[in-house]
Amino acid sequence: MNILKWILFPFAILYDGVTRLRNYLFDIGYKKSFEFEANVIGVGNLTVGGTGKSPMVEYLVRLLGESYTIATLSRGYGRKTKGFRIANSNDNAKTLGDEPFQFFNKFKNIHVTVGEERAVAIPYILAELSPDVILMDDSYQHRYVKPSLNIMLTDYNRLFYNDHVLPLGRLREARKGAKRADIIVVTKCPQELSANERNSIREKIGNYSDSKVFFSAIKYLDPVPLNEDYNKLSENVLLFSGLAYSKPFTEYISSKYNLVDDIYFNDHHEYSSKDMNLVEERFRQIPFEDKSIVTTEKDIVKLLNGEIKSVADHLPIFYTPIEHCFIEDGEVFDKMVKESIMKTEN
C-alpha cells in the first residue's frame, strides 16, 4: 500500500496544483461566478462518493416546500440525455439520472431539472418555471454559479480533514476549499455521538473554515414494497445495492434482519434484466421459505420502467427510504436556511 501511495503521490500533487489554480482564478475574478436574483441553495461536498447530498436536498424540499415553489437542478450523472431538461411524466432514471428521477418520483409539488452547465440552466429555470428557490445538487465545485447559500457535507466516516486529493485520496479539491461553505454538515453520524467528539470535530474543521457546523444522522424509514402484493419485509433477506459507500446501509439491515446474502454493484449502476436474473437466482438459493429482497430508494427508481420492471415486479423487493435527522440544533439550521431566503428576497 505504501508503494502505491508513492506511485500516486506525484499525480496527486499535479491534480492539487490544477484545482488550486482553478479556484484561485475564480477567487480573483478571472473566471466569473454568476450570481442570480434568485434564491439558489447549493448542496455539495469536497469528496467523490456519497455524503448524503440527495437526502439533504430532500430535507430542504420538505423544509421549504409548503411555503415556496421549489426547483431542483442536478447534473443528472449517468443519464443518456444531454443539455437542459425539465422532468416530465415520460422521463425515467435513464433520461434524468438516478437522483433527479428519485426527486421527481417522490415529490409531486416541485419542479425537477437537469443540466450540465448550471449557469446556463438557471436562466431557463427562472424564465420557464419561476421558482422561489432553486436547490442545486452536487454543486460545490461548480463555481460558475455563486449560490446565495452554500451547504457543504462531509461524511462522519470519512471526514474531509483526514483525506487527501485525488488520486491519493478522495478529495476533489484541497481541504481549504471548505472555507467557501456557509454551513457545514457532518452527515451519517451515530445517533449517540458525544458532545466531546462533536467539539473535537468542530475544532478540526475550524482549521479550514469558520462556518457553522451541524451534525446529522441517517434515519431509516419503514421498508416499502415495489409490488403491493408483498406487504411485509421478511426476517431473512437478500440485499442488493449500487452505492458509493454501502457499509452504513448493510450494517443497518444486518441489525434489523437476518442478512443471508448480499450483492453489490457500482455507484450509479444501470441495472439490466441480467442483473435482476442474478438477484433472483441468488434469492431462490436462500434456504428459508420466509424471505425477501431489500435495496435502497436510489436503486429502486431504476427498476420502475421497461423490461426490467416486469422482471422485478414478481419478486418480493422492498426499498428503505432514508431521511436526514439532525442530532442537535436542527432548528438553528432551519432558521439559517430560511433567513438566507428572506435576505435574498430583500
From TrEMBL:
Recorded hits in InterPro entries, A to Z, give: LpxK, P-loop_NTPase
- NCBIfam families noted in UniProt: lpxK
- What is this protein's function? Transfers the gamma-phosphate of ATP to the 4'-position of a tetraacyldisaccharide 1-phosphate intermediate (termed DS-1-P) to form tetraacyldisaccharide 1,4'-bis-phosphate (lipid IVA).
EC number(s): the record gives 2.7.1.130
Which source organism?
A: Fulvivirga lutea
Q: In which pathway does it act?
A: Glycolipid biosynthesis; lipid IV(A) biosynthesis; lipid IV(A) from (3R)-3-hydroxytetradecanoyl-[acyl-carrier-protein] and UDP-N-acetyl-alpha-D-glucosamine: step 6/6
Regions that span the bilayer: none
GO-annotated biological processes: lipid A biosynthetic process; lipopolysaccharide core region biosynthetic process
Its recorded reaction(s) are:
a lipid A disaccharide + ATP = a lipid IVA + ADP + H(+)
Q: What is this protein called?
A: Tetraacyldisaccharide 4'-kinase
Q: Name one GO cellular component term.
A: plasma membrane
Acetylation in keyword set: no
